[in-house]
Specification:
The chain is an alpha/beta fold. 29% of the residues lie in helices and 27% in strands. The chain contains 9 helices and 15 strands. Strands 3, 5, 6, 7, 14 and 15 form a 6-stranded mixed β-sheet that branches. A 6-stranded parallel β-sheet has the order 10-9-8-11-12-13, with helices on both faces. Strand 11, helix 7 and strand 12 form a beta-alpha-beta unit.
């Protein structure tokens, strides 16, 4: 089968399309014929060699956590899923024609494979950091870098819970954020004062790693009310860095519920063929994403 692999840490150019042995479903796992794979910032952070404790890497390594596809192997002890089912979920080395998933759920009615592949890690991360920052209904959450996949999920989930959201993003994504229900402002010069004019900030999330931790602490008044998923230096300022996933099956179940009720929609900004994984990483690395990027297998 074909898969994307890298034999050394570095830029997008280290990604190679290679022939590899097919993986197989071990006990408690399923294998899917991948139709689409989500492109997440964690993918290129791992490829670059950033120290992410939750994701140890042995080279050569595959790439990818999220995928949607058709079940074609069911491991021992797995119940409730059959060969031929359409599922989405999280596993390992999903930039490939076949991948083994450790967590999965039936694809919600009406979603394409490309759309479904963009949800698993994104929703798990959004649910986790909303919980960790301990923001409550009636309070206001500031989201720095709100227009990407995780930000899009955070805004919609927080609004569903009765939380006011202030989101920062580029000028081109202001209407997009407002459409999700956020109070929007740009992140260029003067953004702190613009946020203050929008209201009191009870908690804040750093999703972009753009060097704004000090300002987020200033706005909330408490480093304990700030969580980052993108700035590895955040703990030096007393801010929690969240990089270890919680329960992916629980997150997928909540995603299915929210999507099915029309409460969560994350658009696919761009799809790439598997052969253009390097371009997908380069584009993801620049930021300014509206929703998700996915690979079509």
């Amino acid at each position: 089968m074909r898969k994307i692999s890298f034999a050394e840490f570095g830029g997008p150019e280290v990604l190679q399309l290679v022939e590899a042995e097919e993986p197989h479903a071990s006990p408690g796992r399923i294998r899917i014929a991948v139709r689409a794979a989500g492109v997440n910032p964690v993918d290129w952070r791992i490829r670059e060699g950033q120290v992410l404790g939750a994701h140890p890497v042995e080279l050569p390594a595959g790439v990818g956590l999220d995928a949607a596809g058709v079940v074609d192997e069911v491991g021992e002890g797995v119940e409730g899923v059959e060969i031929g089912d359409r599922v989405f979920g999280e596993g390992a080395d999903t930039y490939a024609e076949f991948a083994v998933l450790s967590a999965w759920a039936p694809m919600p009615e009406g979603l394409t494979f490309e759309e479904a592949a963009g949800y698993p890690s994104v929703v798990e991360t959004a649910l986790r950091i909303i919980r960790e920052v301990d923001v409550r209904p009636g309070q206001t959450l500031l989201v720095s870098g709100a227009s990407g996949g995780v930000g899009s999920a955070v805004v919609q989930i927080a609004r569903e819970r009765g939380i006011t959201v202030i989101g920062t993003a580029g000028a081109a994504n202001q209407d997009y954020l407002r459409g999700l229900g956020a109070l929007a402002t740009t992140y260029n010069e003067g953004w702190v004062e613009r946020v203050r004019h929008l209201g009191r900030v009870d908690a804040a999330l750093d999703l972009a790693g753009s060097g704004v931790i000090r300002e987020l602490v200033e706005l909330t008044g408490d480093p304990g009310k700030v969580v980052s998923i993108a700035d590895l230096g955040a703990p030096r300022l007393g801010v929690r860095f969240s990089g270890v996933a919680g329960s992916v099956p629980d997150a997928l179940a909540e995603a299915v519920d929210l999507i099915s009720r029309g409460r969560l929609h994350i658009p696919v900004e761009k799809s790439y063929p598997l052969t253009e994984a390097a371009a997908a990483h380069a584009d993801s690395r620049t930021g300014h994403t509206r929703g998700r990027r996915v690979l079509v297998v």
